Amino acid sequence: MSARLVDRAPVVGPEELVAELVPPPRFDAVRFDTYLPNPDEPSQAAAVRDCAAFATRVGSRDGGGSLLRRVFKAAKAEGRPGLYLDGGFGVGKTHLLASLWHAVPGTKSYGTFVELTNLVGALGFREAVARLGEHRLLAIDEFELDDPGDTMLVTRLLTELTDAGVVVAATSNTLPDKLGEGRFAADDFLREIQALSSRFTVVRVDGPDYRHRGLPDAPPPTDDAGLAASAAGIPGSTVDDFDGLCAHLATLHPSRYGKLVDGVAAVHLRGVRPLSAQDVALRVVAFADRLYDRAIPVVVSGDPVSALFTEEMLRGGYRKKYLRAVSRLVALSRDAAKLG
């Protein structure tokens, strides 16, 4: 019988959370010279040059605190010391951010926006500032502000870190002065959002989603017998009822989702169906991100992964999260089809 994710209850301590702030396994080997710009999108080649130049500037700074802070204050005086990669899904922003992280020497950290807020929740604000404040670079992938509390928290965190000399690079699908738009009353937090955006130089990365460029649609769902046969043919697979997995995710902090799937060869989900509750859908988004980080193939029965989120959800404030999750799950479904 195949293993089940619902039988796992991983525990992640604060020390482990800090140690794990590195690019995910999918991006271990990426570098600037492994990024292949789309020749039809000149912004991509320009983004490679801009990111490489930024990494060189950050890397050339002396690791000593006093000199680093003097150089950083000079950069602040010029206006925008941070780097912000903006663009649609699948244009290689994460590849570029991870390449930047690999290119910068010294102590540094890399995590998604959710992982960063999880770290603050686990350590406490002051301890998170103390630990991250010792780093030369903080790279934040998938930067999003979903509620007023996150706006205040991240603005304060990045203000203290950049004042301490930490350089911040980030990716998102939303320009920094538009963060939070459509999800809460952004006007009420305009000062905080503008303070945050003033710390970034924006580099635009345009183009179609490379995960689907010239590729067929996701393979259709299999039936339950096909799902069982696939799991039996891939050692290290897990098989779970979709509803059961969704319920299990609710019992785990999202910071534990990565460890939940560590070592899994392929995830099989039985009875996938459209989600109706926003909280469940957002947990599935976080779970999909961790699967994609680890390049874990996904096989489903029931409805296709492209039908996970309702039309109403795709028109709402979390639209970009849901579209990113669909893009990634479709890519992982293709990976599974290749195994067959």
What this model shows, in words?
The chain has about 350 residues and is an alpha/beta fold. The chain contains 14 helices and eight strands. It folds into two domains: about 30-210, Rossmann fold, CATH 3.40.50; about 215-340. α7 links the parallel β3 and β4 (about 165-170). The longest helix is centred in the C-terminal third of the chain and has 21 residues, at about 320-340. It is globular. About 45% of the residues are buried. Residues about 65-70 and about 180-190 have low confidence and may be disordered.
What distinguishing features does this structure have?
alpha/beta, Rossmann fold, three-stranded parallel sheet, 46% helix, ATP-binding, Cell division protein ZapE, P-loop_NTPase, ATP hydrolysis activity
Short description:
The protein has 340 residues and is α/β, with parallel strands linked by helices. The protein has helices at 14-19, 42-59, 65-77, 93-103, 113-123, 125-132, 148-163, 190-197, 224-233, 242-249, 257-261, 278-293, 311-314, 319-339; strands at residues 82-87, 108-112, 137-141, 167-172, 200-205, 237-241, 266-272, 298-302.
